[in-house]
Amino acid sequence: MIVDKLAIVGTGLIGGSFALALKQAGAVREVLGVGRSPARLTVARELGLIDHAVDWAQAGQADCILLALPVGETAAALQQLAPHLKVGAIVTDAGSTKLKVVEAARAALGARFADFVPGHPIAGSEQSGPGAARADLYRGKRVVLTPQADTRADAVATVRALWETAGAQVETLDAAQHDRIFAAVSHLPHLAAFALVDDLAQRADADTFFRFAASGFRDFTRIAGSSPEMWRDIALANREAVLTELDAYLAALQMLRQAVDAEDADALLKMFSRARNARENWIVTQDS
Amino acid sequence: MIVDKLAIVGTGLIGGSFALALKQAGAVREVLGVGRSPARLTVARELGLIDHAVDWAQAGQADCILLALPVGETAAALQQLAPHLKVGAIVTDAGSTKLKVVEAARAALGARFADFVPGHPIAGSEQSGPGAARADLYRGKRVVLTPQADTRADAVATVRALWETAGAQVETLDAAQHDRIFAAVSHLPHLAAFALVDDLAQRADADTFFRFAASGFRDFTRIAGSSPEMWRDIALANREAVLTELDAYLAALQMLRQAVDAEDADALLKMFSRARNARENWIVTQDS
Description:
- Chain A is of the alpha/beta class.
- Chain A has 12 helices and 9 strands.
- Chains A and B meet through α7, α8, α9, α10 and α11 of A and α7, α8, α9, α10 and α11 of B.
């Protein structure tokens, strides 16, 4: 047993899978769930993700509270939760961006900010909701924690132990570095995929184009099937790093455009070869 | 039996799979193979993709000759083949772009251009070479033919029958329209994936970025694992349409950048929702 009572705010894929994994491992005794939708809370209870649906006051009495919400909703949830936090309670989150969440937590929690452990599990699925939760979602996946200078070390240790029990590999990063890295390897690819599909979709003869799209297009655009609300929130919460990455990408595409325009076969071959080699080297590390 | 002797120029995935499918279906009696690498031709024969390795003169005596080569090598192959073409022989190709191939065929074949049927099977794999060939590669896949006003109708009918026998669904398109469509749904996504990976790969701290890349990145960049030589050829062979698509994509990314910069949540949500809906509608047609 790592904590007695765990509360999850948001009983979907991310929160539900965390609860399931910890319950199965015997790392928590009781799981409380907070959410806006009574129907969804009922499903979460029936599926065994949570033991009880509770209000903010009861959630504040848990030993550890995970906010598993779109980043746009985290600030409001922290404000709701703050007045009810019992002494020693740890708060953590699962948001895809960290600087804005840290800022919101500092504002909402005041002196209790030391008990907040910013986190980001690098796991997900195209499915969402309580029905998609699985005890093994985090097995072998990375979780990044971005503790601040004034974060309690034992709160970090507890959150780390919970994620490790759920099967994850935990790393710590500076929050700003986290946001820069994920702007590049996650946020930009999502925006690039949305932009490409939308550019086609808006054409008068869109159907003709889609009719000939094949497997390369399907994989390239898979992430354009993700939640528009979630990605709107992420783009805005990580605005500065996303703009930096968009500018770098626009510059890379302009260079490519110049090489095509100038029929510079060598430049194209160099660019494509570097990209393929880098990707192959990366894939090898993924398989290990 | 649709043709007696089939010759394939290039005995890799594309040519080899075509030959295997037709041999198995009894649509051809004998398959001849042309290639620069004796070792590869031996493998192709041992795997049963071809019956004999032949030279250009012998290949010209086949009833149908398929050029299954990178588009950059098609013009030279047509020039080699032209003097040896027997009366009535049909020539076809499997190149990813069509206008340049048509132009090269017109120049190389002269009066025999009427016997050339430009084609493009929409099938492939990350694997290549004779060992990757499979009789079912084309089953359920699209093949686009782009016959010209002066292409012999019975040559088109024969090539159509061969592809249909291999399990494909054959459509005809205007060559320019073909090139515009594939610039958008295939060539641009490949270039966009190469550019994104290369932009990361060239950074001093590239390893830190790649270390946190996950499944979304893997799928988005899968096509950046494709052959650099093949994609250099395609980008140059379809230069004008590729430039048009690159410009449209740059404009779409600039609009997205402006929405992020202005924190225009509604514009982002609209863009992402349109993209997701369009992709979901497309995926439904793919499954049927």
